[in-house]
Amino acid sequence: MNTFPKQTFFGLLSILSIATVSPSASAGSSMPLALHPENQHYFLFRGKPTALITSGEHYGAVLNLEFDYVKYLDTLAKDGLNLTRTFSGAYVEPHGAFNIASNTLAPGAGRFICPWARSDTPGYANGGNKFDLTKWDENYFKRLKDFVAQAGKRGIVVEMNLFCPMYDESQWRLSPQNAINNANGIGEVARTNVYTLDKNNGLLAVQEALVRKIVDELNGFDNLYYEICNEPYFGGVTMEWQRRIADVIVDTEKSLGPPPHAGGYHLISQNIANNKAKVENPHPAVSIFNFHYASPPDTVAMNYALNKVIGDNETGFRGTNDLPYRVEAWSFILAGGGLFNHLDYSFVAGREDGTFVYPAKQPGGGNPDFRKQMKVLRDFINGFNFVKMKPLNSVLSAHASDAPRAYVLAEPDKAYAIYLAPDGEKPMPREAVVSLELPSSSYRAEWVNPLTGKVDKRETVKSKKNLVMLTSPPYREDIALKLIKK
Fold this sequence. Notes:
TIM Barrel, Immunoglobulin-like, alpha/beta, 23% helix, 2 domains, 9 helices, 21 strands, single chain, elongated, disordered N terminus
């Protein structure tokens, strides 16, 4: 193996880090995605209150050269969605990982591009030369910046996910950080030590340089936030390392001079847990706390007092049908969440319009009809002044019949958004009776079908003795209610 002396390697990394911290040529004047000043459980984006809701591809849009990201972004925009996640290339998957057919995170031989340039040394595990961890691949950064720019033109926010743990040896065997895949002789460590402060054998300097480079290159974009690491609760990722990366993001943005945007620096996300967990001692720079598979959405209530955005940015492992993921989305947003990303396996290279028909064993769902359902959810929540709202299940005087799980988001004494989730996933005839404790007044009620977006029933109801009783139209899966004081 060709290796650099360690003094030479770290000297080159120091020069590389200094060289990357320079004002971005693409800097603009738009305020970047921010927490909404009136309600920090939601975003402010281009002057408008925003909840991020999407059904997006499996994070390989940039690193997979076979993937036509313009066609993909056109599809998201056409479907009325406003978020996508993408991985940096520090992590890549082998064909067949997690039983995913046509995985966008598993490029074909020679079709993987990442931040580091190829060296003159042959022998990368998935085709082509090894990587040089002291040199950047400017074609990668051109592609990355164009991806973010194209997303911005379509009003789509990009979650730039910087790192991901090596779940098993198959991912570690493909990582440029592994000593077998770079010409620098660095990264000869166990995969569980890659994202640590004291056992990484020199990789920390590489990782910090990468963060500085990405933050510098993307400094001028407003449609962007950074996620430190995907699922850091696997693969030995330490909390101390995550906090260090957050510090590097903050310090790098500050070192670039005054923010190129009127509103300040980019938001930072931390992925906390699968399903739910209470956030303890959060890093002060983290503004988005993301969870995976957060159904039911108990984690929103557990962390609502943080006064930050709570997100559910990955779904899956509940079959390929739409219903469980639609219920997860509606429940999470109506519980007070501000971000939802469904992992949509219908987006693959060659089918960037989201029409790939995956096998029954695929570990998740997604399809054109499901994306329409996510647009229904976006339209529903955007039909309220939601920054004035908060979770308020206490107005339910009793469990709604035929709907054992109900979620209420309310602007008290003005507007109420209610979602009735089914018990189980089998469609069946239903008719719910909802009893709400509301101030005496008249209210306009609209019963909305989450599958189609159609209003199945309109009525005006009155609160009598501070009690409103409503009966839904017949439905088979789930239903939503919009209630506005007249």
